[in-house]
Amino acid sequence: MQALAELDLPYLPVQSPEFGADPTGHFARARAQHPWLARSDIGYFVHEYRAIRELFWMDDKMRPSFDGIVEQLGAHGTPWGRFTEEQMISLPPAQHKLLRDTFAARFTPRFANNLRPMMRETITGLLDEWVSKGRFDFEEFASWFPISVMFRLVGAPVARIGAIKKDLETLGLAFSMDKTRVPALQQSITRLDQLVHELIATRRARPAGDDPEDLLDLVISAGDGGGISERQLADLIMFFFIAGYDTSKNVLTFTMHLMMKNPTVYARCAEDHDYCRKAIEEALRYFNPGTTFRFTDQDIVFRDVLLPRDTMLFFPLSISGRDPDAFPDAETFDPERAIDPNTRHLAFGLGKHMCLGQYIARAQLQESLHLIAQRIKDPRLDGEYGWRPFPGTWGLKGLPIRFAAG
Ligand code: HEM
């Protein structure tokens, strides 16, 4: 058995501003030196697709390490620190299981499918507003979609979208581990908390009527039935706002970037909804924004390497779909790629913390791409774009495009 310290591991400068522009290249070079593990200044990175899967099946021997992140940012005892340590994903196993058992059965493909007409209406409204411009920053456009859907899902007042959107931008950068961002995180989480408490109070005060069940009704009724506290309910809804915002926005923006390089795929997405679904699945393999992390809760021997208790492991789901050992011709974007159940993409994670909102996210991405492709014709790059920090919610920073209005 080998000790971690004895391994000759590649070093990844994950916090350097340049890293976000080419993590796949960095990880490919790292792979040449060690097949599945690399080191960095913030922890170890497990970068091989199969190693990520195998370790995720041992999730009971690890804990999501948000307490470590809060500690590194010196934010214990602050509103953002409290939320981060108590949000669903960070809870101790028994409390997490209670929440997961209470809500997971309600987050079904059927619930998400029923939201599709609302999603289509929302993206159509945005396209009506934006398409006549002929050129714009696609990331800015895309950023209005998931938040507008979320606002409709919980009946939040539209007038507050702009302010909350800024807060979600701020909160989305939290895990880039920059201490100077901490005061802004406190303000943003406090505003979001206020909004969510108001929403719950208003909904509880509303007389019973014939309104169809939305996400807020679902969470309140499931939560009340499962004995979930008011604090936990509010935290969960706040988490939905945060978990669904820049993840969906970044995937949609990167998908447009991919589509500009694959105009035939894009044209077909406008015509064929089923094909559009495949294009989204393939886009999620090719790119996704997530890097998740865990602390080992006990010594783990994995592939003859001892990972001692309290080792911080990062799992770059974002680049896992480009591992050539798991995906033949991994660099080719091909929506018709055969899906092997043993190598499904990991954009939504795996195991007991797998994304609760995955069906909602997929439905949003599919419906929006289908309609965007009908209205934003022949999109071309119209300037420079940058990259967001890695390993936060990674993705493109800005995507200026020009196009013909459809
Ligand atoms: C493209 C969009 C999205 C992506 C790529 C994404 C990705 C992920 C990933 C990778 C995880 C697992 C993290 C881990 O194991 O540490 C996760 C968890 C989670 N996601 Fe998402 N997500 C997306 C959208 C959403 C949406 C729209 C919602 C809610 C409406 C949501 C709610 C959640 C929740 C509640 C969890 C925690 C589940 C648990 O701890 O049991 N996500 N997501």
Walk me through this protein's architecture.
The protein has 406 residues and is of the alpha+beta class. The chain has one domain (2-405): Cytochrome P450 (Cytochrome p450), CATH 1.10.630. It is built from 16 helices and 13 strands. It has helices spanning 23-33, 49-56, 66-72, 79-86, 93-103, 109-114, 116-130, 138-153, 161-172, 182-205, 215-225, 230-261, 263-271, 273-286, 317-320, 358-375, and strands at residues 2-3, 37-39, 44-46, 62-64, 135-137, 292-296, 300-302, 305-307, 312-315, 376-381, 386-387, 396-397, 400-405. It has a five-stranded mixed sheet with strand order 2-3-9-6-4. Helix 9 crosses helix 12 (230-261). The structure holds protoporphyrin IX containing FE (HEM). Protoporphyrin IX containing FE binds at residues 64, 88-89, 100, 239-240, 243-244, 247-248, 251, 288-290, 292, 317, 347-349, 353, 355-357, 360-361.
Ends distance:
62 Å
Counting DSSP E segments of at least 2 residues, the number of strands comes to: 13
Look up the CATH topology: Cytochrome p450
* Major sheet description: 5 strands, mixed
* Overall average residue pLDDT: 94
CATH C-level: Mainly Alpha
Separate helix tally: 16
Question: In percent, how much strand structure appears in the residues?
Answer: 5-15%
- pLDDT < 50 stretches: none
Order of helices and strands: EHEEHEHHHHHEHHHHHHHEEEEHHEEEE
CATH architecture: Orthogonal Bundle
